[in-house]
């Protein structure tokens, strides 16, 4: 089987590909989180996994590790909040330690460069900490490791935003379950999107603070922070192309 | 989409299915681990996921959560050892805490019964600890939770073993990457098995102790603990049917 | 002594003020982090402490706890990076657990509402986790606790930004050690700012990913992400007034 | 005092014996766990301690460390379950960390080889993790350490089983508090066994899964998993002789 | 067997004794630590265990749990330091968590009062933390638990000191391995003391600070902090009698 | 600004002062704890901070880091107990890890010697553990670090005690909130002492054990363990002078 996906390889193939230590290992990190009534719970896993696979195929010197499925607790302002049924999240320390161990295992195989493709904003600091601990622990052992950490949406240009949101962009902050993620899912997993269930909501506005426990009334009942109605597979393709090219360009 | 797979549902559907608290949540727990040169690294994830899905479909009162992908460190006598390239494992505390958090999140959604389907022997004690902590923490909060923990192979009868190993069964201890797992994979993911690469090995024998660091010479170079050569999809189907029926029978 | 500062009170006074459980406890959380050659290492501590005190005085129903001094690891894109001499940071778990314990102690005194005023962007997720754990642990014990978490700069309006940056705002992302923080420090601690040492730097630009270990060449040698040259105490006052009023307005 | 027991030595004697770094340190690890109404709570501690002492005396190049007394939580299928009064167990992380620290202290004295003699099945994975962490931490510091991990019953041959169970062996799985452990205790600590209180029970049978919280009805009211009635000191001696010789043979 | 020692009881006997929840459970906590060339490494375990047993016998309403053997790191000023061969110590968190779990297990059996008899000064704060966590966790679950924490030497009166040290007492601070502990061991375990190896040393004097790593030159080469030469079994008996009576008097 | 206080420096100045690695870094560690109705909650922070600053100024080769504000749980016999409103304490592990991280950050800047000035007795073991872990971790990386740990009161001579307590010293054990701390605060922060609120109490006497939960009746209602009435700023000056000189003498 010709694949960039580590889990689909047998170990001898994997060893051959990695024994020179010059493959970059892509680790997609997602979450199980509600994305509105029109979409499955796993876009944050599927999107970085898809991007990772395409990046690896294009770059030629990368492999994709099995994704981290469960991510850090959804926050109201970025993911609707951790109180929605179906939003299934782990604590920061659990995520950090689990990811750290996974990365360390790949280091033990001889790999030295990693690209964490994050699909869930709230994961950022846990991934940052896992990466930092990995680098420090390895350095103490005389091993030089490099970890790139990125969120795929940071590779989307203003030009693309203008095309995706011809009526004006309401901002990254409210893109949870909106046009952006829905468009990508329509492109890569249309079977997991049911636009007939999509609910039109005004872009969310929030007070300039957070509160714990979260206040469900801050979020639209549908769970998305903006309307997904104008999502299309074409927009998804446009976004994905740019993200994939961008990552390859910068880190290939 | 009509599915038992939680991650493929939208959250409103999930809420409807779980709001009475009478769904059992199946959590498959696997590992990324070498299974010989003839098979991918993910049988321990794919097999319990497949079984979980079939059990849930048959039982009618269960849902399947996204699997835990990375498991506890492979041991020489049960999985060949943690030193094989491709075998990518996490520590006991990381696995325990990650699984604990995932289960706790499902409890927070209102679910009260869980079935952990383990696909990787070495996970057992970490899952046991996660389950025990969950039950105790919930009890302290006045929540009654029940966790069933099983390894799918414990549902295989001697009759089936006799059929699968007509020339004599060399024992559970050496079934890593052998006829049993290979047969199941031939049934459910033939594209991830390449029997032309399968290596014939005598059933492994070990001294009556373990040693750390592991001694690679204890294991056949191919990584399996017995020969996969006589694996067939038919045997896989036989085994799966029995496991699936058995789990439904006991826990449905 | 008439004060809102908890640490300056004797315990009997503190008890009298808090025994009805209707005081909100403000906890400033900062960091020891370089802010350019023109400023001390502690703006992230002093600013939220100052704001906290003024908010408490104005609101009348709040007390200010001693600040958390050392914060989470400085990141290149928000604080210049953790490699600068003087930048003295703790891990996420240490910060989270330390803050959690402090909050829990205040709960044990009978307090039920908390306002975390964050002065260091990188602290956000650790504070979020501490707050979430506190709320959950207390709830399990039948205690209802509410934690507000804010970063003071989120209370600055576009109008104020327009006044503070008459030549155009280069964005929040590069405000580390720039006009905003320097202006505030010129207002509240002029003795800790030496504008003669201020270095003019162009607003930092970064690639759309992070890298570990951090690459020092991404940051100007002075350590700030934009130029502090146009900072004035008047601008500082303007900003502070708005933050203080805003917090009182929302949470008083 | 001429002894292999470290705790009975003065430190100067211990230093003389270990300063070449060529002594193997035996660490017995047990548990406080019910073993039926006819036996004390400490067989899992006393048996590996006794074996350790005899092995050390016979091998000549080993010393015995004070035993770890409290072990991992008793499981229903192997130890009757953690709900019996008297069964007094610790969590996996506590056991792992405590054992790790003890081993690390012996490494700091200059010792490089360890033999963990386990007397309580449930300890296995915690000991495995402690050993693995020790080896890795030491390796990172340039110290080569070797840890052997064994459960004494794995050294019992089929021949001995045939002699001990002339009427047929009902299997290792149900040997908790049965003929095997009782016979050994009758040999080494007859004062802690009262055969007049021994209860005859049929060998336990269990469903092919575990459940949390444990279901006490799965276990005989006496707490043993098989009948201890046919235990004798002679059988105990036979078993011990084989275990002791076997360990010396393999690891001496 | 008529005993107060929990580990020597069968579980049915233990249940009968504890099922009313009115037994106080004594937990001796010690250390493996050098006590000079004239004494074994385990006085800190044996002394509190002996005292515990005698207290329980005298009080009539107490039982003695198996001792915690390995204690917190020996400090130079109280135990000679953690660098002596044979001094085998664990970290604070490991001790705290291990003791916590043990106490929790006894609570789960229905016990509500505990007496921790400490034999190793350095354990104090870890035991304090374990006790505090236990009390808090249980209170959160509606269980009222009481933990007494004592070091046996705190029950020795000035009168006894005057008798034991007729030539003047050089202070508690230097009693490590001196007349006090040696006398007790001569009384309870004379076979573990060899007075012919006892080394006369002047009472240790230390600078008013500690240093890490420890400076071995601060301690006499023999490892004791004062001279054991005048130790006698009679003095040991005197001391023990007072400690035992005192503990029964206060906590019986 | 000419200062020894790290937090008041800009990072370039700090770098210049520390780049040779020959500065000793003083870290004051305190607590927020009631000290009677006549005094603020922060003497344990302010006193070691003041001493640290004076020591650094006098020694010339030291810098003072921002203090650790919140310390380990107040104990009845040394600080009145953790149940007083205003006494705001953290757990041992939180303190240990937080201090460890802070020290590690200073090591990363190139510093190699540290002086921990403790102002709160209960912190001792957590600081000891943090120092020990730091030294060991650094040694494993080939970095030689030295940590001095002191409590300032250990530098007070009997002569000074005789002057401060002309009517007889009632012992260190009961000095919480008494003449000693009050005198120092009258000297360095008279605005935080109100002698008109000082309560005369007899020196506390305690049973020879501790109990958890603490028994408030063991402590005087005012919270001090002895009477502060005879405190004067002159006594404070005398004490401080001796502590400062002593520390410089020993560690300068």
Brief write-up:
6 copies of one chain form a homohexamer. Chain A is an alpha/beta fold and 252 residues long.
Layout of helices and strands:
The structure is a homohexamer of 252-residue chains.
Chain A: H1 11-18, E1 24-29, H2 43-59, E2 62-64, H3 76-79, H4 92-108, E3 113-118, H5 124-140, E4 146-151, H6 158-164, H7 179-188, E5 210-212, H8 233-251
Parallel strand pairs in A: 1-2, 1-3, 3-4
Helix pairs in contact in A: 2-7, 2-8, 4-5, 7-8
Describe the fold and architecture.
- Six copies of one chain form a homohexamer.
- With about 250 residues, chain A is of the alpha/beta class.
- Chain A is built from eight helices and five strands; from the N terminus they run αβαβααβαβααβα.
- The first copy, chain A, has a single domain (about 5-250), classed as Rossmann fold, CATH 3.40.50.
- Chain A has a four-stranded parallel β-sheet, sandwiched between helices.
- In chain A, strand 1 (about 25-30), helix 2 and strand 2 form a beta-alpha-beta unit.
- The radius of gyration of chain A is 18 Å and the shape is globular.
- Chains in contact: A-B, A-C, B-D, C-F, D-E, E-F.
- The interface of B and D includes residues 75, 91, 122 and 129 of B.
């Amino acid at each position: 089987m010709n694949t960039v996906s580590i889990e689909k390889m047998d170990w001898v193939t994997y060893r051959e590909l990695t024994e020179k230590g010059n493959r970059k290992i892509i680790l997609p990190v997602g979450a199980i989180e509600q994305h509105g009534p029109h979409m499955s719970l796993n876009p944050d896993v599927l999107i970085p996994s898809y991007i990772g696979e395409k990046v690896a195929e294009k770059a030629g010197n990368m492999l994709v590790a099995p994704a981290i499925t469960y991510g850090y607790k959804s926050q109201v302002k970025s993911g609707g909040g951790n109180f929605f049924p179906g939003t299934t999240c782990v604590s920061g320390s659990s995520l950090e330690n689990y990811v750290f161990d996974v990365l360390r295992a790949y280091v033990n195989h001889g790999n030295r460069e990693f690209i964490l493709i994050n699909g869930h904003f709230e994961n950022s600091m846990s991934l940052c900490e896992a990466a930092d601990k990995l680098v420090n622990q390895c350095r103490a052992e005389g091993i030089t490791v490099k970890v790139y950490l990125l969120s795929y949406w940071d590779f989307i240009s203003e030009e693309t935003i203008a095309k995706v949101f011809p009526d004006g962009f309401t901002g990254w902050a409210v893109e949870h379950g909106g046009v952006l993620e829905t468009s990508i899912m329509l492109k890569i997993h249309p079977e997991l999107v049911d636009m007939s269930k999509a609910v039109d909501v005004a872009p969310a506005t929030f007070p300039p603070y957070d509160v714990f426990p979260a206040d469900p009334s801050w979020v639209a009942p549908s769970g998305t922070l903006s309307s997904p109605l104008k999502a299309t597979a074409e927009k998804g393709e446009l976004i994905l192309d740019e993200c994939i090219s961008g990552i390859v360009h910068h880190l290939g």
